[in-house]
Structure formats: structure tokens, C-alpha cells
């Protein structure tokens, strides 16, 4: 009887360990970008670096395909060539099997007045992890870090 109880206990232990050791499925690209519902990324670095005024810009991606952009402190370079966008609300969408992303600015934040849609991209997603996003376009690349 003791032997039967011992074998039964060991088999339960083996099955319990197998269940714990199974790998969790990798998060989808949408989950990485949005954190499941929403995730804010700050613009860490952009190239070419002649428009380096973007260090405090925050992009918040929502799982429903919308986004919010906050320019932080408004800055402009001395030559007047670079500056922050307005704060805006818009949309984002993956394409090319989630290797590309397109962003469309639709309206100033908090406004109901639509602007002429401004499309950013498509850009190639060269890196997308839980805490780092790199998008490359023909103009250069932008690196984001999780806020």
C-alpha cells in the first residue's frame, strides 16, 4: 500500500512539474506594441540626428488601432527646419505580415475637428521587443523605449 501511495505521489509530482515548465506562448506583435491594451513609448533616438528635438515625445499605441502623440516640451531648432508635431490622435496599422507599420494623424488631441490626414510611413519594424521599438523609413530611423 505504501508503495502504491509513493508511486501515485511521484506521478502527480511529475505531471505538476511538466505543467509548470511548459513555455508560455510568445506575445503577439500587437501585444508587444500595446501591452495588451495600451502602451506608451518615448522617442529615444532618431536618425538623421539633425532633428534631435524629440527626446520627450511620447507615442501611446492602443490595441484598438488608435494612438495618441504627445510632443512634450515644444522645441524648434535654430534654423527652423525641425520642430515637434502638434499633439494628435490617430490610427496605426500593421502590414506586410506585421513587419511594417503605418501611422495616420487625424486630429489635434482633444479636438473633434478633423485635419487633413497626415500619413507617417509605412515604416519597417526592425526591432520590436517588450521595451524597445525601432522603425526605419527612407528618411532614417526612430528608436522608442518603453516609458
Highlighted features:
147 residues, alpha+beta, Lipocalin, 8-stranded antiparallel β-barrel, 8 strands, globular
Total helices: the number is 2
In round numbers, the mean pLDDT is 79
Low-confidence runs of at least 5 consecutive residues:
none
Proportion of β residues?
A: 35-45%
Query: What's the arrangement of strands in the largest beta sheet?
Result: 1-2-3-4-5-6-7-8
For the record, the CATH architecture stands as Beta Barrel
- CATH class identity: Mainly Beta
- Output the CATH topology: Lipocalin
Give your account of this protein's structure.
The chain is an alpha+beta fold and 147 residues long. The protein has one domain (25-146): Domain of unknown function DUF4822 (Lipocalin, Beta Barrel). The chain is 18% helix and 41% strand. The protein has helices at 2-21, 29-34, and strands at residues 38-47, 58-62, 66-70, 88-95, 100-108, 118-128, 132-137, 140-146. It is globular, with a radius of gyration of 23 Å. The model has no long low-confidence stretch (mean pLDDT 79).
